[in-house]
Design goal:
The protein has 208 residues and is an alpha+beta fold. It folds into two domains: 7-23 and 92-193, no CATH class; 25-88. It has four helices and ten strands, in the order ββααβββββββαβα. The strands form two sheets. It has a five-stranded antiparallel sheet with strand order 1-2-3-4-5, with helices on one face. Strands 6, 7, 8, 9 and 10 form a five-stranded mixed sheet that branches. The longest helix has 31 residues, at 25-55. The chain is flat. The relative contact order is 0.16. Residues 203-208 have low confidence and may be disordered.
Length: 208
């Protein structure tokens, strides 16, 4: 989701786009395939690094790489299982209809869209903003990210991760859309200070 283009207006509905894609089994298959390839590359790299580390201690190189590959494969399997649940569970888009004052909504995940629900079942939309402030001596400006949560009458629905950027424009536009339906929007901002890199990390690093 781009912070400034999160609300997409159509003739008969308005979409809160948290992340693109989803809404069909084909889209879900592509999303899961992309996730699997991403984790496969990460696991392969982990296996190579583990194999190199073990072989540097001496012994049979092929055995060390076999162990490294086994560790990488296990990590990939665990990550796929965990990521698969999140991929199909998290909300990617919320459709509000009609476009003016919404009376219905439906949650779109990686698979098929959910059923249309009365907008009254949405009790609150919560936007949690995290601002990372610079530590003393850090020349980088503060950075902002935010995540959207949907408080339904049966519990809280999580969405697909956080978004880089300022949420102010989204708060104004989404707040105006939901106000007519009587749904409150809450913005909570948290400030944290970036961790200062250790002297070991600074040695030989560019810019220090």
């Amino acid at each position: 989701m781009h912070a400034d283009r999160a609300l997409v207006r159509h003739a008969g509905s308005t979409d809160l786009v948290i992340r693109g894609g989803g809404g069909s089994r084909l889209q879900a298959a592509w999303i899961y395939l992309y996730t699997a390839l991403d984790h496969l590359l990460g696991a392969a790299l982990t296996g190579v690094l583990v194999g190199l580390a073990l072989s540097s201690w001496g012994g049979h190189t092929w055995l060390e790489f076999l162990m490294g590959g086994s560790i990488g494969g296990l990590l990939m399997l665990v990550n796929l299982v965990v990521r698969r649940k999140g991929t199909f569970r998290d909300v990617r888009r919320v459709e509000f209809a009609p476009a003016g004052i919404p009376q219905q909504l439906r949650l779109v995940r990686a698979g098929r869209p959910g059923e249309w629900l009365p907008v009254s079942r949405l009790k609150c939309v919560r936007i949690d903003q995290l601002i990372m402030d610079p530590y003393d001596g850090d020349l980088r400006p503060p950075s902002s990210s935010f995540a959207v949560s949907l408080v339904m009458d049966y519990g809280t629905e999580g969405t697909c991760g956080s978004v880089d950027g300022e949420p102010e424009a989204l708060v104004v536009e989404l707040g105006a859309l939901l106000r007519g339906a009587g749904v409150p929007l809450e913005l909570e901002t948290t400030h944290r200070t970036r961790s200062k890199p250790s002297s070991r990390n600074r040695i030989g690093s560019p810019g220090f």
